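for the writeup, i need someone to sanity check this before i put it in the appendix. the sequnce is what the collaborator sent (i think, or maybe the updated version? ugh). structure was predicted straight from it, no edits. if anything looks off just tell me and ill rerun, i have time this weekend
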Amino acid sequence: VQLVESGGGLVQPGGSLRLSCAASGITFSTYTMRWYRQTPGKVLELVATAFSLTGGTDYADAVKDRFTISRDDANQMLYLQMNNLKPEDTAVYYCNAHLSIWGTYDYWGQGTQVTVSS
């Protein structure tokens, strides 16, 4: 199983970035997909969720109305469109694949750094 994030970088406050996560080795459409983020010394924070099969999404209050999570099941891709970025969005962003059926399966990417600074 591989989850490979890309799209991070340095952006000024108010700018935008689009993160991508390419998945392989799993039946992508059956997994709930999530973006998490972490800054040094802080706990892992759930940012956004794209539920399997239903197409529903959910967001942390801190990013609601600024970030949009989407998934392309045919191409096994997960995205996070981040608009109006703020310095407090600076973190390493991780892609997560989760499935709970006949056991729990969790897979993680290596992370991509997002830095919001002027």
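The chain has no helices and eleven strands. The chain has a mean pLDDT of 96.
thx in advance!!
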